[in-house]
Design a protein that fits this description.
By secondary structure, this protein is α+β, with helices and mostly antiparallel strands. The protein is built from 8 helices and 23 strands. The strands form 6 sheets. The protein has a 6-stranded mixed β-sheet, with helices on both faces. A 4-stranded antiparallel β-sheet has the order 2-1-4-5, with helices on one face. A 4-stranded antiparallel β-sheet has the order 11-14-21-22. α2 packs parallel to α4. It comes from Yoonia maritima.
Length: 361
Amino acid sequence: MAKITLDNLAHSYLPNPSSENDFALKELNHDWTDGEAYALLGSSGCGKSTLLNIISGLLHPSQGRILFDDKDVTHAPTAERNIAQVFQFPVVYDTMTVRDNLAFPLRNRGDDPKYIAQRVNQIAAMIGMEDRLNQKARGLTADAKQKISLGRGMVREDVNALLFDEPLTVIDPHMKWELRTQLKALHHEFGHTMIYVTHDQTEALTFADKVVVMYDGRVVQIGTPQELFERPAHTFVGYFIGSPGMNLFDATIDGSTASISGTQIDLGAGYTPQTGRTQVGVRPEFIKLSTDGTGIPARIQRIEDVGRHKIVRLDVNGQQIAAIADEGANIAADTNRIVFDPKGINVYADDWRVQPQQEAA
C-alpha cells in the first residue's frame, strides 16, 4: 500500500504542446491517501485512463512527477511499482485453469505453495469461481474471464495499489452489484489503495471513499459522495452526479438575493458581486411545486413515476428543468410555480462554485 503523490503532473499526446488545450491531462497536484478507495469518474475522453496509465507506468507524463510514499517512480517500469491492474476487457491465460490463472502472480514471485493454495481458494470464493477452479479458461464467457482478471488483480496482499480500468463493462448487470460489494469488502479487509476508473456514477458512488470527477482533462472536484451531491464545485459535477442532475438557472446576484426570470429568490446566504456568467444551481430534490402565487413561474410538461419517487418535468421560461416529488404526492393540476429550499442552493460564476460570504439574516 502506498500514498500516491501527483506533483505538477500533466500529459499531452502531441510532441510539442503549445497551449493548455493541447493537454489531454491538465496540470494536477494532489496527494492520494494510503489505503483509501478512489474512483475516477467522468465521460469518455476526459482523461481518466490517461491518468490511470501514468500511475501504472504504462505511460510517461509530459511533465511532473508521480511518487509512491515519497519515492519518485515517474520513470520506473510497471514491474517495479508493485501495482496490480485490471483492464476493461479480460486478460487471462486461455490454456491455464482458473486455479493457475489466479495463482500465477504468487507463483511468479516464489510464494509458499500452502499460502498460494489458501489465497487462491479465498479469492475464488470472493469471485464465485470455487466450482470452476480446475476448468480451462478458454471456454469461459467474457464475464467469467473478467472475474478471473479481477481475482488475479486482488490475489496479492502487499501491492502498492490496485488499479481498475472500467472492469465491469463486460460483466452481466446482475453480477455488477455483487462484484462491487466484494471489491469494497476486500478494501475494508486489507486496506489496499484502490483506484477505479468508470463513467458510471453508481459504480463510483457505491465503491469509493473519495470520487475524483474529471472534465476536459481536468480534475474539477475530489470529494465524498455526499460532498459531490450537496456542494458540487463545478457545474459539470452537478450535471453528472445525480439522476436527474442539477438544474442551472441564469441569474443576477445581489447579496443574498438572486433574480431569476424576473423573480427575486432568497439564496439563504450572502455573496459578493460576481463577474462573468452567473448561475444558481438547485438539485431536483430541493425544488418544490407551488400553487400559492409565490416562486418562479413554471409549467408542468409531464410526470414520470419511477417507483421510489416522481420526476416532474417543467418548463421555466423556455428552459427544461426537473423537480422530484414523493412517490405518494398528489400533484395539483393548477401547479404553476416552483420554489427553492435555500439549503439546497449553490451559486456559480463561469461554472465554478462561489463560496458564500455570510449567512443570510
